[in-house]
Amino acid sequence: MFNINKQVSIYIHFPWCVKKCPYCDFNSHAIKDDQYLSENYYKMLIRDFDADFMDIQGREIASIFIGGGTPSLFKPEYLGKVLEHIKANTKLSKDCEITLEMNPGTVERGSITSYADIGINRISLGVQSFQDDKLKTLGRIHNVENVYNTIEEIHQSTINNFNIDIMHGLPNQSVEDGIFDISQAIAMQPTHISWYQLTIEPNTLFAVKTPALPNEQTLEDIETLGKKLLSHANFRQYEVSAYAKEDRKSVHNSNYWMFGDYIGIGAGAHSKITNLATKEVKRSWKQKHPKIYTQAVNPIQGESSLSKDDLIYEFMLNALRLRDGFNLDTFKQQTFLNINVLSEKINSGISKGLLEKTDNHIKPTTKGYLFLNDCVNLFV
């Protein structure tokens, strides 16, 4: 279990892509020229880390996640300098997980071997679909040939831990299409698969002009059949959209879901840090626009302390996503609240058939996992 008193994670955000996908609501921007890929950004990341250094409070680093955007656009040597600086100033855990998000259409800018050489030991590959027409609809810059070539390169490298991101519920997707995609993802022999339904988010191109999406029966059939295929291939669902081989759960994401601490550096990055001396839990966020962030004297845009109600709700918002739920001792450790504050709401969830309690352990029932929003809303 992630120990909040001893460990912390680091998230590094790279806010640029070749172009913005029509479904994406992340803090990412279409890159206009290579000046943004210069050394200015990596130097700002180092300054940003130094400003947050005291928040680590001597704890070891359990995971580092480099996300975006498309961080594989960034030169390995620049990413290497950031990682070198972190390693020189902190203690990494013996098996620290260091993940790089990668787009199959950008691998030519830095080989997998180059990333392995700077310490990357896990890759998260944004595949989304194994069908060219679906990739085109999603606005992806890569094609299926790029996907297969990148995965082959990963298998030939020293990096033996990689995730495939794959979506279902795509525009005009049939059951056969959906099952083909997840079957291909399994056949690529990753250690982890993130498989999730396309959702139409506000402030995206798809929200302005929504494409034709599959009906509810098609979505249900894809999910039911896909889960059977994943289970048969020994991918265990441990979170709503996360499936892993044995001992290959994402350390970084698991820390989020168990309400662990992390610092975020980079444009728009968020941090959640517990002051171990005062037991105050604080969130902060950096300047969102890359140009403002890069030029800022102080990259922090805002911060706030979490109230008792915030702590309860945010813990549940994360921990109830886990298929196996959580131990009440973990709640007490992560929030510093007495478990009695949950009793009435847990009992309400049990009476509604949404939660089950075994000794000191809480988890959603099968019904509760299907109606996860109802489970979380118990704790509003």
Task: Annotate the secondary structure layout.
Blueprint: E1 7-14, E2 16-17, E3 29-30, H1 39-56, E4 60-68, H2 76-89, E5 92-102, H3 112-117, E6 122-128, H4 132-137, H5 144-156, E7 162-168, H6 175-187, E8 192-197, H7 205-208, H8 216-232, E9 236-239, E10 242-244, H9 251-257, E11 262-265, E12 270-275, E13 280-286, H10 290-295, E14 300-305, H11 308-319, E15 326-327, H12 328-335, H13 343-351, E16 355-358, E17 361-364, H14 366-370, H15 372-377
Parallel strand pairs: 1-4, 1-11, 2-3, 4-5, 5-6, 6-7, 7-8
Antiparallel strand pairs: 8-10, 9-10, 12-13, 13-14, 15-17, 16-17
Helix pairs in contact: 1-2, 6-8
Helix content: 25-40%
What's the shape? globular
Structural class label: alpha/beta
Distance between the termini: 26 Å
CATH class of the largest domain: Alpha Beta
**So, CATH architecture of the largest domain?**
Alpha-Beta Barrel
**Helical segment count:** 15
Q: Give a quick account of the main beta sheet: strands, pairing sense, barrel closure.
A: 9 strands, mixed
Can you give the mean pLDDT? 93
CATH topology-level name of the largest domain: TIM Barrel
Strand order of the largest sheet: 9-10-8-7-6-5-4-1-11
Rg over CA atoms, rounded to whole Å, is: 21 Å
- Poorly predicted runs are none
